[in-house]
């Protein structure tokens, strides 16, 4: 995208590029020009140093913060040091302890020690985590464990096995933590665990999704008619087409609100961008997208902006 800056003969191309990147940062957009100039002087008089300062701040934003996430039947707690404790229901191994026994007290997930978990997301019988790999060069990777009941529905491929919702290409219970397949060298920043879908937000703002997309909630075009799920994480091209950096995704994490115990086509997704804009896609027959759909329309496959500014 063109920056449309006024000509400035005092800036080199690299300085101009760094300044352009700084201007795209949410915190930078809220600053007055005199505040920007003051920050530049404090950083050594270079926009490249300002950019480095902002990037370091972004990388450390999620570090050193404890959090607790309550799922439908189990709870995950992350300490400020990145250790993870779990307790509650464990019929599908969602506690990550290597077994399927319920736990009434917090149990340390020893297999995750040393990774440094920065964010956790839980859904029905499933846990998703984002961790920092390495002590010097931080590399984020998404981890997951869970499994649907082996005697679950056989007519819906999106729910017939673990691989649909966790990005792991195999069947059977999986009570130990494992990296999500298909992400490769993608550096994950945020993960959202929906009831029948998962979203991973990369550090560069790209979004990857997998799971059930019967309600067109994954952000990419279905492979074909009747294709109910995606096994491996796939770039959400329809979200990428927004040409905005995503910072958070929120996916539907329950379906019982619709009055049916098992209806996978009620899922919807929200996308929050760095600029504070909010977009929605997926099922919207009940008004859950924040925008009224046309008569007879039940889903919106491409994200559209919701009339609210969160900046």
UniProtKB/TrEMBL annotation:
Report keywords, A-Z: Repeat
- In residue terms, where are the RCC repeats? 82-133, 276-311
Presence of the UniProt keyword Repeat in the record: yes
Does the record carry Repeat as a key word? yes
Q: Name one GO cellular component term.
A: cytoplasm
Q: Which InterPro entries match?
A: RCC1/BLIP-II, Reg_chr_condens, Ub-ligase/GTPase-reg
Report the PANTHER family cross-referenced here.
SECRETION-REGULATING GUANINE NUCLEOTIDE EXCHANGE FACTOR, UBIQUITIN-PROTEIN LIGASE E3A-RELATED
Name the chain's protein.
Answer: Uncharacterized protein
Q: Which organism is it from?
A: Miscanthus lutarioriparius
